[in-house]
Amino acid sequence: MRLRPSLTLPLSCLLAFDTIRRMNRFEFSLNISPERYLDYYRGLVQHVVVQSTGGRTLQFPASLLRKFITPDGIQGDFVLTCDADFKNPELRRALRDE
């Protein structure tokens, strides 16, 4: 009987693969004026509600937008990722080729 070599990965690699595999990814566009963002900045509004390009309604903490504020407000295409339980959200600008 001839044995075939097997590939053994460390548990940390398997866990990382499993985590990556079960990430949720949502794309959407924003156009928030500086005046409108003041409500978020002052804490009057704590969550942002948007519709993804796939048609899903998303809600995420307004604090995720802080790093994208410009004198013109917040405009552009964004990608929101979160885990399989819709926790640990991360927001970044969408790359043009995504």
Question: Could you walk me through the main structural features you see in this protein, from its secondary elements to its overall organization?
Answer:
The chain has helices spanning 11-21, 34-41, and strands spanning 24-32, 47-51, 57-61, 74-82, 90-93. The protein has 98 residues and is α+β, with helices and mostly antiparallel strands. A 3-stranded antiparallel sheet has the order 1-4-5. A two-stranded antiparallel ribbon has the order 2-3. A hairpin with a 5-residue loop joins strand 2 and strand 3 (57-61). It is globular and about 35 Å long. Mean pLDDT is 81; it is low at 3-15.
Key features?
3-stranded antiparallel β-sheet, alpha+beta, disordered N terminus, two-stranded antiparallel ribbon, globular, 2 helices, 98 residues
Describe the structure concisely for a colleague.
The protein is α+β, with helices and mostly antiparallel strands and 98 residues long. Helix content is 19%, strand content 33%. It has two helices and five strands; from the N terminus they run αβαββββ.
Identify the overall geometry.
globular
The helix count comes to 2
Number of strands: 5
Main β-sheet description: 3 strands, antiparallel
- Rounded Rg: 19 Å
In spatial order, strands of the major sheet run 1-4-5
Mean pLDDT comes to 81
Beta-strand share of residues: 25-35%
Taking the alpha carbons of the first and last residues, their distance comes to: 48 Å
What would you call the structural class?
Answer: alpha+beta
